[in-house]
Predict the 3D structure of the following.
Amino acid sequence: MIATKKVFLIIPTLKQGGAERVISELANYFFEQNIQVYVVLLADADDFYKLNPGVNVYRLGFKNFSKLGKILSIFIVFFKLRNLLKRHKPDATLSFMDKYNIFTILSSAFLELRIFVSDRSNPLLNLPFIFRFFKKITYKYATGIIAQTSLSKLSLESLTGSKNIKVIPNPLKEVQLYPYIPRQNIILNIGRLVPEKGQKYLIDAFYQANIKDWTLIILGDGPLRKDLENQIEALDLNDRVILMGAVNNIDEWLAKSSLFVFSSISEGFPNALVEAMAAGLPCVSFDCDAGPRDIIVNGVNGILIRVGDVDALSDTMSKLVSDNTMSQMIAHNAMMVRSKYNLQSVGDIYLKFLINLES
């Protein structure tokens, strides 16, 4: 690697979140590859993710304290970012999340820099017209665009006309294995309790499957908790379906469970699914808008089900809990994601795309 290469990574904050985790991991990995790394945080917030002390951090201090103050703060941050880019002239700049991508492209106008942007949400999300318009106009000026899934790439090609769009998945977070923890008769789901995560379909399928001596555990919290509790009570599943809320020991739950069901009906990139596969769990997933079909080869390292098909989900869950040979085969193949999506593999793809570095 060439020590003089310089990369800017732009994101609002390092609060807890998927995009923030990826940016922090890429920053640390790039630094380890002898790259000068600058993380630019647009807004004021406490950090959740930790950066290597050798990573340079700029905090531009956007504040949203009033309508007039917000507008003034946007202009201040705009020129702070532009001045940073003009002064440092990075070899590549990567921005995460669409509205901040627009902001970054506009801030770098006429500076003749290599600007890359990455969308992190469902590509089929219905955006307001004005936002979609600005995205269409500005993304044309990006040097390259990073999509998380093949569907996202198709959507971005259609919107922007860009020919330099590369699909790069999220790096897998480190999933700790606990070989001494025995597997139990637990079907696990992880996700916020929101409509997009589709837990209501999972609960119906679990009820329909009537799998004796098995428990459905859902990790996560959110606004649908009361609705799901009412559904569980109406189906008389109080002793067999448990809403655990948010937990800190997710890897231990992955270790003690025997089947993972990913019931999302809409996704950007399904991190929870990849983590479950990395933990050696046989996984069943709805074939939702983006992500699962990029990761799962149906019947080989997981099972894909048509979105919302409770009957098929119920039948598949029943088959996997009763067919140990099939479950073990799928679980064994699923663990291959540990090499495909590890930070080194994904980080090297990023570097090669951003600054044409060969690893």
